[in-house]
Structures are given as C-alpha cells and as structure tokens.
Amino acid sequence: MFWRHAIGALDCSRGHLVGIVNATPDSFTDEGRHFGTDQSVAHGVALAKEGASVVEVGGESLRFSEPTPTEEEISRVVPVIERLVAELDVPVAVDTYKAPVAAAAVQAGASILNDPTGLRDDAMLQVAADSQVGVVMTHFFGEPKVRPPGFPDVDVLEAITEWAADALARAEAAGVDSERLVIDPGVGLGKSPEQDLDLLHRIGEIVALGRPVFIPMGNKKVIGAVTGALAKERLPGTVAGVIWTRLRGASVFRVHDVAFVRQALTMAEAMKDGSVEVWHEVPK
Fold it and tell me: Do 94 and 101 contact (CB within 8 A), yes or no?
C-alpha cells in the first residue's frame, strides 16, 4: 500500500517517521528552541539526516492559548518550507488547520498537508483538491486551541471509524484521490487518556479501514498520564507506542526524536520480518 504525495509516494509496507519542526515559540516539547527560520531549517535538515521520511513544519502550537494570526503563521512556515524543499530529498509537510496557511505552504513546495481537523473546513478541502499533496485525515473531538469542557462519553473506536468513512468519502467526492489519504485517529485531540489508550490498544480496527494509519505518538500527554513523565522525558513511552502500533499495522509515526526512534523501529521491522535488507558491520 502506498501513500502518494505531490512528489512521489511512501511505501507503507514498512514504517516511516515524520520528523517534527516546531517553528513556534511555545511548543510543548521544543519550548521555542527551533523557533526562527535558520533554527527551524537546521533542525529539519538534521531530522532528515537522522532518517525521517517526511519533515513536517508547523507554525502554531495546539496548546490552549490565543490563536496565532494567519499572516504570522504564514510568515513562520513559508520561508522554512521553501528552504527545506530546496535542500532535502524527502517530502516536506505543513501542519495547519487554516486554509490560507495550507495554500501558501503548498505554493512554497509542501508535498503533504497535515490538517488536525481532518479537512472539515470546505476551504481546506479545496486546497487539497486543487493540488496533489498527500493528506493526513485526523480525527479531532472539538476545536483547535479550545479547551474542551469534558470528553465525549462514546466508544472512541466506533466514533473514529464512523467519522473516517464519512471523511474519506467526502474527500474523494471533492477530488482527493484515496491514495493520497492516510488516517490519523487523533491521539490526544479531545480525548481522555483512557480513550487514547483504548484507541492505541485497538488500533487494528483503524488499520482494517484499508488506508495507511498515521500515529502522532511523539511525547503525547497519554504517556505522561500513564508514566508521570514530563513532556521532555517521554521518549521511552513514545518508542513503546510506535512499536506497539507498528506491529499491529500502523505505518507512519510523527515523532520528535527521529534518530532514537529510527533505531527502535528498524529493529522492530527486522524482527517482524525475520530478515533485513541491509546488514551493517557490527561496531567493535
């Protein structure tokens, strides 16, 4: 199975990592360390060298705070995308729920659109339909930047599978070919830690929908809820989530620490298959 995007396709018979470039001053994990065009570009180049199959640029944190003005978000992401596209051989993605930002990013060369609201905005759906970008279709209870008053009392897998059928059909009807779509069940997006664990435990039900499954596992709050670890201490939990879901059929994993997770994922793939394509000389 392939995930097609504007400059090629990812073979989702194996796992892929999406390296996160937070071009923001207030991200949960980076805390602004990669804010600024030069810093963001350098970080994106490093992630690609570490083994990221996709480098994703986001200009607004989803933390509960005032929304970033659209023009400010564009000014953060477009210069970074333009430079990364010029320097990298891997596709560059944009993470945004705003159609004007997505359109500017596509114009700058972004090959993939990661919309945390799953193209619910008709204008965003049109951006996807008018281009050849790959699209991450994300499930989200609620609205970006708005603290929910509570969590829906539903079977989360039933809700996600029902949403996915409708969202995929709507996208295809608008002209977005199904091979450009992957499903993100939206870990942490309007869901309680118990619901996040349930969807991760039952991820095979999402895989059974027939499109590649995208897991945004990097340093998620559910890891902190289970382990007590702070955001910057959640790498072991991130690895556990990546390996668990990969062995159950998920294909694409959004993470911060690409080099570390890449080694774990490579070893898991080799054990899963009982073979490996490239053998390295064992270091002494």
Answer: yes
pLDDT at 147: 80
Structure tokens at 131: 């281009």
* Token pair listed for 199: 């969807």
- The answer for residues whose C-beta is within 8 angstroms of residue 74's C-beta and 6 or more apart is 59, 100, 101, 104
Q: Quick check: 243 and 210 in contact, CB under 8 A?
A: no
Give the pLDDT mean for 255-279: 89
Q: Tell me the C-alpha distance between 71 and 281, whole Å.
A: 50
The tokens for 116 are: 């945390």
pLDDT tens per residue across span 108-141: 999 999 999 999 999 999 999 999 999 999 999 9
The CA radius of gyration of the chain, in Å to the nearest whole number, is 18
- Give the domains, in start order, of the chain with CATH numbers: 2-273 (3.20.20.20)
| DSSP 3-state percent helix, strand, coil across the chain (nearest 5) | 45, 15, 40
Helical ranges in 34-180 per DSSP H: 37-50, 70-87, 99-108, 122-129, 156-173
Instruction: Retrieve residue 98's tokens.
Output: 């705003």
Cα 146 to Cα 24, 26, 65: the distances in Å are: 18, 16, 8
Nearest to 164 by CA among 123, 215, 205, 129: 205
